[in-house]
Amino acid sequence: MDMGIKGRKAIVCAASKGLGRGCAEALAAEGVELTICARTADVLEAAAAEIRKSTGAKVTAVACDVTTEAGRKALLAACPNPDILINNAGGPPPGDFKDFSLADWRAAVEGNMITPIALIHATVYGMMERGFGRILNITSYSVKSPIPTLELSNGARAGLTGAVSALSRRTAARNVTINALLPGPFETDRLRATSTKMAASRGVSFEAVHDARKKEVPAARFGTTAEFGATAAFLCSAHAGYITGQNVVMDGGSFNSTM
Known about the structure:
Elements: E1 9-12, H1 18-29, E2 33-38, H2 41-55, E3 59-63, H3 69-78, E4 84-87, H4 102-130, E5 133-138, H5 151-171, E6 176-183, H6 189-202, H7 206-215, H8 225-235, E7 247-250
Parallel strand pairs: 1-2, 1-4, 2-3, 4-5, 5-6, 6-7
């Protein structure tokens, strides 16, 4: 299927690896001009070079901390009028609620709620004026089903979801959609790092923990970044203009609900 977004311009955050990289690759394959960001310059530049080589797309890499005003300014200077915005950030660390400080909560909200809101605020009105826009927030299925030990993430991501819900209904008439893609367990560096940490704490092998976690997923596997990216590309496509304000769970069936 032709997604109908060839020649569009997109900002993809945290795109040097993982789910963000999957989104960037899928959009590039559709002929979208990319501006990608991440904190680590060499890893980001390598990702940009690989995407250019595999797709022929124009890719601008902006090494910055997008959770800061200066980082967002640099990103938007590189792509001031995006047609597509994919907000993405690594989740806050796990832990015990009693051990989280107010500084921990502020950092979680800054990274996973305030930063996406700031980028949306800076881009959505231009999208509405031009009559096309796709905003996709990568959050987590914890928005629908809170995950123990991830209270920082649960709270910040749910806050973002609530903050843009009404806005997504106001922008729809101008062909601007705002949706969220809620991943469960995907085969990423973050997932592998968590399995490594769990294995060390239990005194067992990485393989034992990783395979056990995989068996907990109804699909009996972890998701791939390529299939995540493909879904993101569809939600950003010309064909998805009637989908807005939705939280699309992509977790291999892990979230157990009839609705």
